[in-house]
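Subject: Head-tail adaptor protein

B.,
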Amino acid sequence: MKRSQLRWLVTLEEQVVEPDGAGGNVSVWRAKGAHYACLEPLTGRELLDGAAGVSRVPFRVTVVGAPYGAPSRPHPKDRFRHGTRIFDIIAVSEADPAGRFVECRAIEEVTV
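Prediction pasted inline below.
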């Protein structure tokens, strides 16, 4: 992987629970940082979810590596956002032995 392949500016977001002011809690997404990423679509498929069709495309998202414990390191259950597109992260691994890049497996779902 070369840094020149990281062409997409994506926002890394994490889900947090905050009080809603009425005694309950609400789940919101908070930005953790911005990354330049390489987005590679893999084989997708279309499903029926009730009356609506859902297009589900897995992606390989590669970003610059960060050490374990760093807030800028992606984690499963985080997500990447690019404009209105959402990529839910399901797995994170090192892309190279030196740890210069991190590879995330993500899913983009769109109702069609």
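The beta strands are 8-19, 25-41, 45-49, 52-64, 79-82, 85-94, 101-111.

T.
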